[in-house]
Amino acid sequence: MKPKFITLDGIDGAGKSTNLAVIRRWFESHDLPVLFTREPGGTPVGEALREILLNPETKAGLRAETLMMFAARQQHLEDVILPALADGIHVVSDRFTDATFAYQGGGRGVPLQDIEMLENWVQGGFGPDLTLLLDVPLEVSMARIGQTREKDRFEQEQADFFTRVRAVYLERAAAHPERYALIDGNRSLEEVRADIEHALARSFGMDV
Ligand code: ADP
């Protein structure tokens, strides 16, 4: 079986961290070799850039921010993602390029064609086999991140920023339904889990 590259994405508070555990258990229960990683991050260079990118004290312009995201991604691909896939190991990444389109493109206003250009340069046509896109309405996202944690540089943005972020995610999912599993994260954890497991099974060609 060709190893798969699966990404998990969505606006803050959609339930990514919570549902990573669901994905982990699914791989374990099917006895499939898998590597979990995250963006920005996944390598020493990437994690250092993550510190800069998420730190509320950082003052970075929108192009610098976008380039740092792709710098982290390039290292991540070269050192972690592509070698694992070459070794027959499935890879699950908590966020990937969809997040750059959504946050730097939708949120910050970087032209989407500029992001596409960087995507082509860095990834050369490589991309996820499946993207699990967790979606929640803005009020739910805001309520969840407001209650539970100290906010990072992105989470401190205002509601209209997240409205634009969410819109880009949804547009991308609608444009490529074969690659995305759009999961309504505004339901019980049980229902969300069932959808994620269903999407994974489908992607692996298992009877569902
Ligand atoms: P993300 O990683 O996407 O930002 P988290 O998984 O950290 O989101 O979830 C944010 C908060 O919302 C956490 O407190 C989590 O327990 C809660 N949460 C996540 N999914 C659900 C759900 N389906 N129903 C109720 N609360 C949820």
From TrEMBL:
Keywords on record: ATP-binding, Kinase, Nucleotide biosynthesis, Nucleotide-binding, Transferase
Known catalytic reactions: dTMP + ATP = dTDP + ADP
Domain annotation Thymidylate kinase-like: ranges: 8-196
Presence of keyword Transferase: yes
Any GO CC annotation of this UniProt entry: cytosol
UniProt xrefs under InterPro entries: P-loop_NTPase (IPR027417), Thymidylate_kin-like_dom (IPR039430), Thymidylate_kinase (IPR018094)
A single MF term (Gene Ontology): ATP binding
The keyword Kinase appears for this protein: yes
GO terms, biological process: dTDP biosynthetic process; dTTP biosynthetic process; dUDP biosynthetic process
Domain of life: Bacteria
Pfam family, one: Thymidylate_kin
Binding site for ATP: 10-17
Its biological purpose: Phosphorylation of dTMP to form dTDP in both de novo and salvage pathways of dTTP synthesis.
Protein name stated in the entry: Thymidylate kinase
Gene coding for it: tmk
